[in-house]
Amino acid sequence: MKIALVLAQPPSYSETFFNNKIKGLQQKGHEVILFTGPSRVKYKNCLHKESPPISKFFLLQFFSICIVFIRLLPYFKIVNRFFKLEKLDGSSTKVILKKIYLNAHLLTFKGDWVHFGFGTLALERELIPKSIGASMAVSFRGFDIGVYTLKYPNCYQKLWKHVSRIHVISNDIKQLLYANGFNDQASVIKITPAIDNQYFNADGFNDFSTPIQLLTVARLHWKKGLVKTLEALALLKKRGIKFQYTLVGEGDEKEHLMYVVNQLNLQEDVTFSGKLASKDVKTIMQTANIYIQYSVQEGFCNAVLEAQSMGLLCVVSDAEGLSENVKDNFSGWVVARGQSKLLADKLLEVVSLSSEERLRISENAVNRVKDHFNLNIQQQAFHDFYTKKQE
Question: What stretches pass through the bilayer (predicted)?
Answer without folding.
Answer: 57-76
